[in-house]
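lol ok so funny story. i was supposed to be doing the assay writeup but got distracted and ended up predicting the structure for this chain instead. priorities right. anyway since i did it might as well share w the group, maybe its usefull for someone
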Amino acid sequence: MIRARRICVTAVAVLAALAGSPGLAQAEQPHESRPLSARDGNPLPPGWWIVGKGGTRELVWRAPKTVPMGDARVEFRTGGRLLGVPKPAKDGRTFRLALDETRPTQLRDLQVTAAGRRLDAAADDTHESGTRGPRTPAQAPANGVDPGRPGPYRTVTGKYDLDPVRLPGFDTPVEMTAEVVSPKGAAGRRPLALFLHGRHSTCYKPGSEGDVTGDWPCADGYKPIPSHLGYLRDQRLLASQGYVTVSISANGINAQDHEAEDAGAQARSSLVRQHLARWADWTAHRSSAPAVVRQAAKADLSRVLLVGHSRGGEGVNRAAMDSLYPPPAAEDGHPGPVRWKVRGTVLIGPTIFGQNPVADVPSVTLLPGCDGDVSDLQGEAFVDGTRGISRGTALHSAVYMVGANHNYFNSEWTPGEAVAPARDDFGTDPEQPADPVCAPGAATRLTAAQQHKAGATYIAAAARLFLAGDDRVRPLLDGSGRRAPSADPARVLTHAVGGRRSGGFLPDGGAKVTGARLCSAIDPDPAVACLHPETPGSSPHFASWETEREAGRSAVDLKWSTPGRAARVTPTKPLSLRGAQKLALRVFVPPNTTGTKIDVSVTDSSGRRVNLGSVRVDGLPGSANTASYWAQELRVPLSAATRAGLDLGHVKSLELKPRSRAGRVWLMDAWGWAPGTSAVKAASLPRVDVGRTIVKEGDSGTRTYRIPVEISGRGSGQVRVYVLDPDGGRAGNRLVTVRPGSDAIDVPVRVKGDTVYGDDVAHDIAVKAVRGAVVGKYRGGLTVENDDPEPVITLSPVADRVTEGGTLTWRLSVDAPAAVDLYVPVRVLAATEGAELSTKDVDPRWLQEWSGDVPEPERPLSDAHLWAWLNLPPGSTGVDFVVPTVRDQVAEPAESMRLALTDRNAEPLPGRPVLTGTVLDKP
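and the output, tada:
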């Protein structure tokens, strides 16, 4: 006899709630499951279960409390690799992921993460990152120019609200609403700064404490959350300095981007460019502009700064890309001419799921040290990901702000300032120890006012450098170690690539490393990975992408227990540092460590070696909850090399020699540095976009399809293509040279037809730029849809009338075997006549296994909330569901139980019989 494997059991509280809810309104809040024993053959841990059948199977996880709508993607992972991005339910706690062909036995070590942060487990801070607790970094010297000071202009403020627009892939039109703040009385055309907020709840109920939704448009009784008004202080500062500013609303995208494969990046780009196009129209025909635009200073669209927060950061990056390299027409929500020039971007706690920055548009990325949303600080890829891609003249700066969280850069996401409910995204858990770095009141934590003021200052610094060309603010952004007093008391550290840097000792690309370990940013093998997976905290430089292993993302890991052993990095060919004044190294050490000292030397092609000097570095304040393994920029003068006659045009190797007693250092890269800002001209590059094709599997034969890839633009470049295994999730990769109009990325997929019911299968690829190329839509593929009818499932009695001590048995049957696991729910219902079996009439171990309940106090069996999902393995035609009863010494009448097939909401299926089992008293 084949017996049903127990897949999951509802929690008593949920079915109790369902029973008391009209229409089972809470059925979208699935049960919690208890741990499954090894004999069940099922690896799903508590809180997880599988629902549905065949091509509709879903892996479901329910959070113990609401997961607020935010910018980081909620991701399901298994064995360390990305399984997929689940769809959220409206309850804010339930997440569902279509399983395709994945078998339950393949779901090992399930995890729920968001930007690298575990949502299903607390961070492990049992190992200290350093020898001391967190300490506030020393205050840097003041810069000669402070961009945080208000300018001479008074400002004018107002809004415009245009007809909504339709964007590809979105069913509901998106609003065209914006807030304008402009200098009053400013002569001539003024640079334009456009702000785009991130992903946040869209609607709130006035007067409520926490009633927010992700709907659009808002339901009756609810109002839109004005996220776009959260940057008014930043706008007023910029407007006082002579910039026209506009902050646009994107609630319509936030409500729908969970359906978009790119998480809404292309839609946000389209919305940004829709607004810029209107500004171009109004500049040419001022009389047609809204009143607030007519009152504002004239905008100079040849000088545009895009400022994006969270997913808005990824959105403005894509808008900058689309303005230089047009996207595929079918996905472009603004296919018109480009009548503006993006001179730079500011990215605040941004996402970058595609890790596809625009190398030839200067950028400043603000990384909040206490970000509780995009907590892996993946925005570092806007810096690291530009190296070697194009000409390298655009400055890309990372600004690490100690003690800043994610939300407080936006006043409408800040408690006490927002009109809607708001929260501290870092948050506190009363059941966990307070975070030593980021808990409110910690010495290193900023208040909301301090954080917003510091953010405004660095936005203004970017505007002044990129739009006004004022090189005097560059030291605030490029790793020169200067501070803006307006941002005090915030401790802000910076590093950069590009600009006037030259040479480039990069661990990637074939460099030889001796005396240290050449490690990989992303690799499941702890011996290969730069950071051991059990390391408390994380590194923004090693934020994960789409695969469990990546090529071409490396660092140098130097660890020592006694001083003096040198590490040497030797590129594939000598580098030129001619014209540079200093050698700038980007290195990091474990958080909370102090006093790490290293001697830095270089050797030329003739073998002449010169010690340039020493550097000292302290770790950033960090905990298990922060991404504090972040590289600081350290510089040593090249004057010693010049005096010694070293050939700076042919530098063969870089050497790092520890002077501290013991320690550890990671080197990201090293560059020749010179002051000043380079002129930036975007190169003509090919652009790669991966599409998606959906096909039916067919009933017979084999057909070959190809994953759709569009290569546009100009020139040639290299990308790395990862082919993702739909079964095990592993990924092979290859380097591909791409040219416009070519089919260089040729990934055939063989589809074999059959008449057996099975899963939909996604054959996906992911693409990343390596050199001389840009990537827009980075992931796509071919989805093969099952087109065979679902087997007919019946429930029939095998032994439905037994004496006590016997076993009631029903058979769950299918009319034809399936190629995949089928999961079928059955529910015990209340008896409609006569006496009902009680919790003490069945085997107590059976009751515990199937309901998580105990016999006492005795009650009707239906009150134990028995709703079970039975598994029919591939090829099976049926399984038995058994209810073992127990014999007692009490004389009693015949007792019964009722059993029914149900839908996913625990409702009996209409038109299907409800079966009755009867237990007779032992004579």
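The longest strand covers residues 154-165. The longest helix spans residues 265-284.
back to the writeup now i swear
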